[in-house]
Amino acid sequence: MTWLSRLLDDDASLALRPATVDDAELLADIVMAATEAQGRRPEMSAADEADWRKGFAGWSRQTVEQADPGNVLAVVVAGGQVVGRLRLVRGTGGEAFLRLAGIQLLPAWQRRGIGTTIIRGLQDAARREKVPLLLGVEKDNAGARRLYERLGFVHVGEDDEEHQLRWTSA
Predict the structure, then answer these.
(1) According to DSSP H, which parts of 3-98 are helical?
(2) Nearest-angstrom CA–CA distance, 30 and 108
(3) With bands split at pLDDT 50, 70 and 90, how would you rate the model's confidence at 1?
(4) N-acetyltransferase domain: which residues (predicted)?
(5) Hey, what's the torsion of the CAs at 159, 74, 62, 93, to 10 degrees?
(6) Contacts from 141-148 at CB under 8 Å and sequence distance 24+?
(7) Helix axes 24-37, 46-66, angle to 10 degrees
(8) What is the dihedral of CA 101, 107, 113, 116, to 10 degrees?
(9) What is the pLDDT of residues 105-135, one digit of tens each?
(10) Where are the domains of the chain?
(11) Model confidence over 58-111: pLDDT tens digits?
């Protein structure tokens, strides 16, 4: 059993698997669909959308090909179907941490507890490892921020685009 699969060991209906280069286009589609469903996708021409999608898919392929154990790109599977994307970053050295660097679910799979289950699994991992769980949430994504705060994350800073949140088991 991999570290990734252990995050959800209490929920047999959900699975996380490492992304492959063949998932790159699908992951781009998931991000576009999730952002659009939240009403957060900027207006783009068809050409700009194609360029963005190509660039995101290329970044996803590169992330997978570099195979950095501290930077995990995963596919969320529910009921045997691909329903989302998850990116995790592990920090070591000066301050060890676990960072939720991105989670997106297809609109039809949102508000079913999948994101909450994944985040609680990350909290359990952070608790076991005695490290904080960090994340950034876009300032225009109030729904996600409410979810994170409900799950015990606290605001620790911000930049022009994101609120920085932190969860610790203390």
Answers:
(1) 3-6, 24-37, 46-66
(2) 11
(3) very low
(4) 14-170
(5) 60
(6) 141/38, 141/40, 143/38, 147/115, 147/116, 147/119, 148/119
(7) 130
(8) 10
(9) 999 998 889 999 999 999 999 999 899 999 9
(10) 3-19+70-167
(11) 767 777 778 777 788 899 999 889 999 999 998 877 789 999 999 999 999 988
CATH superfamily of 3-19+70-167: Gcn5-related N-acetyltransferase (GNAT) (3.40.630.30)
Dig out the tokens for 158 from the structure. 């911000």
- Can you give the length of the chain in residues? 170
154-158 and 162-167 strand pairing: antiparallel
Q: Report how far apart the first and last C-alpha atoms of the chain are (Å, whole number).
A: 28
3-state secondary structure of 153: coil
User: What is the C-alpha to C-alpha distance for residues 57 and 128, in angstroms, rounded to an integer?
Assistant: 33
Question: 3 with 124: CB under 8 angstroms?
Answer: no
